[in-house]
Amino acid sequence: MIVEMEWESAMSHISTPETAADLAAVAALLEMADRLGIVPLLERGEPVTVTELAVAADVPEEGMGRFLGALVAAALLEPTGVKEFRIADDFADRIHQSGYLIWSLRANQPYVQHPAEFLRDPVGSAAQYRRDGREVAVSSRWIGSRGFYPAATEAILAVRPKRIVDLGAGAAGLLIDLLGRLPESTGVALDMSGGACQEAARAAHAAGVGDRLTVVERPIQSVADDPAPVAGADVIHAGFVFHDIVQEGDVFDRVLRRCREALRPGGIMAITDAVPFASAERERRFSSLFTYLHAEFMDVSLPPEEDWLARFRQAGFDQARCVPHRFPGGRLFIAAK
Questions:
Q1: What's phi and psi for 320, nearest 5 deg?
Q2: Where are the beta strands (DSSP E) in the chain?
Q3: Which of 11, 89, 209, 265 has the highest count of CB atoms within 10 angstroms of its CB?
Q4: Which strands form 84-87's sheet, in the order they lie side by side?
């Protein structure tokens, strides 16, 4: 007993680093919160009551209270009053970290659970075992909140563009953020998903920038034959979408050429994407998983850094450079006209 007390006393003075158990618990609790539909309310950062969250989730208030108690115990929420809470200061970082776990183990669950089937019969298994689109979208958004676009945002703001085009814009979160910071600028959000385009228009209106954002429902490949959406841009951005198009060879090269031709003098093209099997210690493990899953199960071979830069030069860009990225294996390629 004395030994146990001495051990506990000694350990109480040691600041333990975050463990895998911590990360796993936080990810599970945040996914539950997302399934309840309360993460958007929490992310606003304003105090919110048990009643408001229970109504949003359509669950009994008593049960929501117990769940919020668990979030407080996990240091994800802080009480601000009687049955009132706000997110902890590091909530955004927790969302970002959890995105990696959910993407790896939940969004790609069919691949993780059925590797033998895929290795024996890739085509048949791909038809039988499909990823949950919602899991992919949520985990990608959570990773992207800190991992995808900070470098791109910095590079774009430095140009002070009047017209910004985002290819594969999804719900246009990046563009809406940029237009909020650049009140005299306009933007074009191009995406092939009708649902994403509808959400982009709704979100832009809600953010007060709807009159400055044009939403275009088209695949990126269409720019190769009709570059109208990118005409006159100061910045053309694409985030983690070009590694799919690069497999199409000539189409990819034609899209790059059309983008260069459409840019105003001094304009830039900024592509955020990934390279295969990045070797730096901080990124090699996740990059290995990301590279393997894309190559083995999604039929996507990520180009190495030198290939990305070569394709820009072939498209006629005067300068092309690679900027380090927070996302493991991610790179920001900036090409100037």
A1: -145, 130
A2: 48-49, 77-81, 84-87, 163-167, 186-191, 213-217, 235-239, 268-274, 319-324, 330-336
A3: 209
A4: 48-49, 84-87, 77-81
Work out the angle at residue 207's Cα, subtended by the Cα atoms of residues 52 and 268, and round it to the nearest 5 degrees.
135
CA 138 to chain centre: 9
Q: Which CATH number applies to 148-336?
A: 3.40.50.150
Helices and strands counted in the chain (H then E):
17, 10
* 298: helix, strand or coil: coil
| pTM of the predicted model as reported, rounded to 2 decimal places | 0.82
**Residue 239 CB-density burial (10 A; 0-12 exposed, 13-18 middle, 19+ buried):** buried
pLDDT digits (tens, 9 = 90+) for 114-171: 999 999 999 999 999 999 888 887 888 888 877 677 889 999 999 999 999 999 998 8
165 touches 232 (CB < 8 A): no
pLDDT tens string 274-319: 999 999 999 999 999 999 999 999 989 999 999 999 999 999 998 8
Q: At what angle do helices 91-102 and 20-35 cross, to 10 degrees?
A: 90
- Per DSSP, 239 falls in state E
CATH number for 18-87: choose from 1.10.10.10, 2.60.200.40, 2.40.50.140, 3.40.50.720: 1.10.10.10
DSSP state of 208: T
Amino acid of residue 68 = L
- Tens digit of each residue's pLDDT (9 = 90 or more) over 40-97: 899 989 999 999 999 999 999 999 999 999 999 999 999 999 999 999 999 999 999 9
Please report which helix (H) or strand (E) contains residue 118, including its range.
Answer: helix 115-120
Domain ranges within the chain, ordered by starting residue: 18-87, 148-336
8 A C-beta contact, residue 239 and residue 215: no
In degrees, rounded to 5, the angle at the alpha carbon of residue 149 between the alpha carbons of residues 148 and 153 is 170
Say if residue 15's pLDDT is above 70: no
